[in-house]
Design a protein that fits this description.
449 residues, alpha+beta, 9-stranded mixed sheet, 5-stranded mixed sheet, 15 helices, binds 5'-O-(N-(L-cysteinyl)-sulfamoyl)adenosine
Length: 449
């Protein structure tokens, strides 16, 4: 992509309304624009990141055996009356009346709709277990939308729903999603810590929040330091196998959000030097709520002995749009964003230091072509602007690599390769730079399906 033909409205100054660094950088780097409080448009650069994140989430859901479908954003009120949540949900739910005066709503979550679909389609235990998911916009009329996409009113969520015959089977589905979540966040360069959490309006009595530690996190969290050091399971994880020991290694030590925190237990169970009190961002939340919805909505199947069994259910959410902010919170410096390559909008930024200089222009065109032929995504800064301004813009938008090409280096057959994360710059031939870039891209995509 040529920057001269792209749509990348950068802001020089920090926008006043942005309280945290990710919100500031998302506005400055031209990723989003606010449409109204807590509701955002995704500009081309931001949309590319959102889509990469969505794709990683999708691949790990598929790998865990979940099946993708797509439910609408608008739902009928009736099913929420069936579950009993229509009145309970309160002002957070955006209620709409259509032209026939039918009560509708913009879905804040989808337990009711998926339960209705499953109930009407599945009659036998032979069609269990199943995990269904979609990636769809949600609306919650939060009292205080803030921090940009981190606490929006309209936001993109991946939500999965599991259907099992027994509590024991449901626990297996829960474990599958638990492991898939660890892998999903790790692929985005994030270290997530699962923590016992409050179930709130979704219900049930077993739930884990997946927390990214960051100073600007909304919630206070408490955990054993060792949990932060654990590595996520590898791509070869067998989802058909018993995952309970893997899950146990992540749940065996103290970890709780402030709502579930037990100060006495924390002190009793965690040696002083291992007690970690920090702030965290909730990027995912998984729930087991048994028959809460299936009972209320009559979602039953015929069991092996012909008896009717009420289906055991769980639901599993990931904040897809929130993750864009969370990744920036975890990975930035004073100059701007530092994208992990797996979610970066482009692999590499090519900076032509002297646009208008025949030799430099021709060399950059050739480099631009070769990078693309090698399968790399490139943002080519071919604008006639000061070199300093170009460097600052490229640092701000945070692509993992930069190739800086100017007449001096080119005269001796070299370009400069800069790694955004470390700031390290090396003068080398284009061919060696290309090798390095291809290797880095291959590593970043190693786990892609
Ligand atoms: N139905 C369940 C699981 S599918 C559910 O709705 N869970 S949730 O309420 O915890 O939301 C799932 C995830 O969506 C959260 O972990 C969080 O990452 C994200 N999320 C929730 N509210 C917002 C919001 N206002 N803005 C951005 N992301 C949000």
């Amino acid at each position: 992509m040529r920057l001269s033909q792209y749509f990348l409205p950068l802001l020089r100054d920090d926008p006043k309304e942005a309280e945290i660094v990710s919100h500031r950088l998302m506005l400055r780097a031209g990723l989003i624009r606010q449409a109204s409080a807590g509701i955002y448009s995704w500009l081309p650069l931001g949309f590319r990141v959102l889509q990469s994140i969505e794709q990683i989430v999708r691949e790990e859901q598929d790998r865990a055996g979940a099946l993708e479908l797509l439910m609408p954003t608008i739902q009928p009120a009736e099913i929420w009356r069936e579950s009993g949540r229509y009145d309970v949900y309160g002002k957070e739910m955006l209620r709409i009346e259509d032209r026939h005066e039918r009560e509708m709503l913009y879905g804040p979550t989808n337990e009711e709709l998926i339960t209705a679909i499953f109930r009407d389609a599945v009659k036998s235990y032979k069609d269990l277990p199943r995990i269904l998911y979609h990636i769809q916009w949600k609306f919650r009329d939060e009292i205080r939308p803030r921090f940009g996409v981190m606490r929006g009113r309209e936001f993109l969520m991946k939500d999965s729903y599991s259907f099992d015959l027994t509590v024991e089977d449901a626990r297996k589905s829960y474990n599958r999603m638990f492991v898939a979540y660890l892998r999903t966040f790790a692929r985005m360069g994030l270290k997530s810590v699962p923590m016992i959490a409050e179930t709130g309006p979704i219900g049930g009595n077993l739930s884990h929040e997946f927390i990214i530690l960051a100073d600007t996190g909304e919630s206070e969290v408490y955990c054993h330091r060792h949990l932060v050091q654990l590595d996520a399971p590898g791509a070869n994880v067998d989802y058909e196998a018993d995952l309970s020991t893997t899950v146990a290694s992540f749940t065996g030590k103290y970890a709780a959000t402030v709502e579930k925190h037990d100060a006495d237990r924390f002190v009793r169970e965690v040696p002083e030097q291992d007690r970690l009190t920090a702030r965290g961002i909730e990027v995912g939340h998984i729930f087991f709520f048994g028959t809460k919805y299936s009972e209320a909505m009559g979602c039953k199947v015929q069991g092996p002995g012909g008896e009717l069994v009420t289906v055991q259910m769980g639901s599993y959410g990931i904040g897809v749009s929130r993750l864009v902010g969370a990744i920036i919170e975890a990975s930035h410096d004073d100059a701007g964003i530092i994208w992990p390559q797996s979610v970066a909008p482009f692999d590499v930024g090519l900076i032509n230091v002297k646009v208008g200089d025949g030799g430099t222009d021709a060399a950059c065109e050739e480099i631009y072509g070769k990078l693309q032929t090698a399968g790399l995504s490139v943002l080519y800064d071919d604008r006639d602007d000061r070199a300093g301004a170009k460097f600052a813009a490229m640092d701000l938008i945070g692509l993992p690599w930069q190739i800086i090409a100017g007449p001096k280096g080119l005269a001796s057959g070299e370009i400069e390769l800069k790694e955004r994360a470390t700031g390290a710059r090396h003068s080398l031939t284009f061919d060696s730079a290309l090798n390095r870039l291809v290797q880095s891209a291959t590593e970043a995509r190693r786990e892609a399906a």
